[in-house]
Please model this.
Amino acid sequence: MVTQYFWPEPFRINDLVENLVSRGHQVTVLTGYPNYPEGQIYPPFKASPDDFDEYARAKVVRVPILPRGKGNLRLALNYLSFVLSGLLFGTWRLRGQPYDAIFVFQTSPITAALPAIWFRRLKRAPMLMWVLDLWPESLSAVGVLKSPHLLAWVGHLVSFIYQHCDRILIQSRAFFPNIARYTGNISKVRYFPSWSEPIFHIPLEDVPLAPEMVPFKNTFNVMFTGNIGEAQDFPTILKAVEILKEHGDIRWLIVGDGRAASFLKTQIEERKLQSRIILLGRHPLERVPSFMRGAQALLVTLRREPIFSLTVPGKLQTYLATGLPLIGMLDGEGAQIILDSGAGFACPAGDGVALAQCIRNLADLRREVRASMGRQGRKYCITHFDRESLISDLEAWTEELVVTNVVIPSRGRTHP
Model:
């Protein structure tokens, strides 16, 4: 497994590794020093790095990287450092070890796949890449990269990476045309959506309420969990909060952290919304259900950008599994899943007025109706995003590549 992010950073790759090990596979993870989302190396790791060399009986090989810090330049250096460190230190630390397959967990940055391409040749093993973020379009959407020439160069890099994958897995069916544009061939592309971690399938009524939620036991709580970033469009969320600020029974609770957290905190103070939107901070994944226990609705948002209309936020499957109703402010496939599942309401991305109305509409429903929405969402999640079935598909695709020996030509080998 090649991934820039891994435990204790909160990503679904952690659950995938644990599941594969439980199925009898031997798994090695090549990753960096944990520093997401705060941008600084985790203090527990700095204090005792040897404690992070194994996860769920999987071997974890960590290579040094420059922490994300703050600002686009620092972020770019963070991306580059993983590539260089993965190629240099990774090659040395994985020397002499054979592998049947290489799997890349591809959120941003896509450059994390470059060490995997090298190992694909070095280990003569097929490479699968799980694409959860489309480059270079997502870079343009969040304003990280604006130069047309640089975006075109990144486009060539994306094409190079895709063409060196033996299997491309996509989290949204809407990704197919984009992938085809950069590869010219979709025969090696497979639909592989995200799933919810098992802890979110436990009925929330069986989960103790987080102490931090006690002050909000008598209000209608709309909860956002996860990354607080540019893509989540918090300026528009704040607009909806202001529209509803006279409704004293509605609270917006934010559980998470990210690069835009300081901006959000400043805006809350400047707009005097401290009593309406509350930042509860970042907490370990296993504690998140105890926060959700006190929520009446879960909020998922993405900015109004063409590229985001193709994306299904990973938290959507998690939200569906909880049995709580959903509110979505996003376009495309993510919004369609909410509507098709009957789990809640969705409005167009970037429309704060419509978001406020969705919240009002949901709050006005009888509790039994909201509970029914939640049950429909859970049922949809079990039917369409079952973890065991999806990982069985991954095993089958990997086995197919291994058996047919589909690897890059090397030392006389050819494609079958």
Observations:
- Residues 408-416 have pLDDT under 50 and may be disordered.
- The first strand starts at residue 28 and ends at 32.
